[in-house]
């Protein structure tokens, strides 16, 4: 099976929207778990989250990559400059760092190595945009939460090295580019 990968931009926003609103997707968070969206006094509504992500795209701020099969959006990897996120727990001594914070693969395409391919594409995308490092925050495969951030063995396979723990489940992993 052949896959194509493209950064989310205004031209393919509707593909991103279709994927994120599909069954089993992160449609309740719109990949904003690590982004300031809500006013200080309340939690953001789904529409606010969607609007916040779309505003980033319209402003030219990278948000991530879509995976396609036969022109159908089937996967997603959130990858962007680390300074566009909050509270990731990474190595703050490093500069020009990009972060990988979310994966979503449509159920019918899971188990085909697409997460590995998306991670490799994310590394190349960050490198091509001037990143010196890329961080990920994966969990152990048996983790009951944060699974959307990927699994530690996937990052190890892509030559990321463990730096430290971020909370009780997430691992900060870094790769020099």
TrEMBL record:
GO MF term set: acyltransferase activity, transferring groups other than amino-acyl groups
Superkingdom in the source lineage: Bacteria
Any Pfam family hit: Acetyltransf_1
Cited PROSITE patterns: GNAT
Listed CDD domains: NAT_SF
Gene3D superfamilies tied to this protein: 3.40.630.30
Leader sequence segment: none
Keyword line: Transferase
InterPro entries: Acyl_CoA_acyltransferase, GNAT_dom
Domain annotation N-acetyltransferase: ranges: 14-167
Annotated protein name in UniProt: GNAT family N-acetyltransferase
Organism per entry: SAR86 cluster bacterium
């Amino acid at each position: 099976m052949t896959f194509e990968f493209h950064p989310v931009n205004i031209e393919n926003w509707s593909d991103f929207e279709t994927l994120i609103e599909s069954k089993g997707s992160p449609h309740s968070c719109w990949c904003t778990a690590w982004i300031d969206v809500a006013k200080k006094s309340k939690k953001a509504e789904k529409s606010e989250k969607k609007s916040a992500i779309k505003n980033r795209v319209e402003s030219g701020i990278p948000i991530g990559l879509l995976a396609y099969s036969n022109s159908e959006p089937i996967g997603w990897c959130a990858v962007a400059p680390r300074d566009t996120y909050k509270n990731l727990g990474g190595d703050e001594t490093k500069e020009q760092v990009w972060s990988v914070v979310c994966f979503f693969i449509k159920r019918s395409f899971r188990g085909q190595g697409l997460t590995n391919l998306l991670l490799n594409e994310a590394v190349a995308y960050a490198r091509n945009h001037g990143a010196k490092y890329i961080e990920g925050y994966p969990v152990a495969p048996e983790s009951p939460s944060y699974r959307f951030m990927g699994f530690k063995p996937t990052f190890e396979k892509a030559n990321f090295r463990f730096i430290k723990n971020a909370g009780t489940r997430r691992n900060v992993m870094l790769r020099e580019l």
